[in-house]
Design a protein that fits this description.
With 305 residues, this protein is mainly beta. It is 11% helix and 50% strand. The protein has a single domain, classed as Outer membrane phospholipase (ompla), Chain C, CATH 2.40.230.10. It is built from 4 helices and 13 strands. It has a 12-stranded antiparallel β-barrel with strand order 2-3-4-5-6-7-8-9-10-11-12-13. The longest helix has 22 residues.
């Protein structure tokens, strides 16, 4: 009964908070309606979809997976950094809960020929061993990801293929832990967004901002987590199918990466059923060099695009 109360309480809290978030629609309110379906609307690129600065809006997917199953729990995470020790092994369950909250706000607009915008964004992802009473149901991994984003609209069309926007970001990602399970890194991320009918494409190559060997918590992270990311989304009658891929850009025996397929189906308003399956390295930051396959099912309040 305790496990059921934990999950029920979490579901009610997240759904209630974010459902009310999605119902506000006036420009004078802090929170904006979230039923957007294009990059132009999501990033304030069209004159009819402009938000005021310092208005909170969706960024990455917002979801709750009460059940997430993995083929191989990472019971004893390790780092290739020489100064990092190895933690004591923990008997983690194959099943856990996972949720993600993500939002952004525009802090200034009209830069660079009167078109560029600067955004602040924050994403938090939590992996919760809620079914593991033997180790007191801990949060196995919390990832924090603040970033500063510059975005610029594009007006380039080739046939029905539209180049919508481009820009760059300074991104920090960490799990807030101390050694030997501390993981953190900084990136300079470039991005380009395109659309073709109901298809949306986002390309994000990045460069890791260097760290000294003595302070690097996750050596060789780009070999496993990857050097860039491509996301493809298809929308049809409220349903959204997405495929996301990260890799180290090596087309040989040294290829490593991460591949994820998600599907959402509308239930009511912004509430959708959410299904995800993925495989590879870096499902969370502590798992940057750990290969596994996971499957999750739950609810979503916002998808990629």
């Amino acid at each position: 009964m305790g496990k059921r109360r934990n999950i029920t309480g979490l579901c009610v809290a997240v759904v209630s908070a974010w459902s009310s978030y999605g119902q506000v629609s006036t420009d004078d309110n802090l929170f904006e309606k979230t039923d957007v379906h294009s990059l132009a609307e999501r990033w304030d690129l069209s004159s009819t979809a402009k938000r005021k600065t310092f208005t909170i809006s969706p960024y990455k997917p917002v979801y709750l997976l009460p059940v997430r199953l993995t083929t191989k729990p990472n019971d004893q995470p390790f780092s290739y950094s020489e100064h990092m020790g190895q933690p004591q092994a923990v008997n983690y369950n194959n099943a856990e809960a996972r949720f993600q909250l993500s939002f952004k706000t525009k802090i200034t607009e009209g830069l660079l020929f009167g078109k560029g915008d600067v955004w602040l964004a924050f994403t938090q992802t939590a992996n919760w061993q809620v079914y593991n009473g033997k180790v007191s149901r801990p949060f196995r991994e919390l990832n924090y990801e603040p970033e500063v984003i510059f975005n610029y609209p594009l007006d380039l069309t080739i046939g029905n293929f539209k180049f919508i926007m481009a820009g760059f970001a300074f991104n920090h990602q960490s799990n807030g832990k101390s050694e030997p399970t501390s993981r953190s890194w900084n990136r300079f991320i470039m991005h380009a967004g395109m659309e073709y009918y109901n298809w949306t494409f986002m390309v994000k190559p990045w460069i890791r901002l260097g760290e000294k060997n003595k302070t690097d918590d996750n050596a060789r992270i780009t070999e496993y987590y990857g050097k860039g990311e491509v996301t493809v989304a298809y929308q049809y009658k409220g349903q959204v199918l997405t495929f996301m891929m990260r890799n180290n850009m090596r087309l040989n025996a040294q290829y490593k990466g991460f591949h994820e397929l998600t599907y959402t189906y509308p239930i009511k308003n912004n509430l959708k059923a959410f299904f995800v399956v993925n495989n590879g390295y870096g499902e969370s930051l502590i798992d940057y060099n750990w290969n596994q396959t996971t499957i999750g099912i739950g609810i979503s309040l916002m998808e990629w695009y």
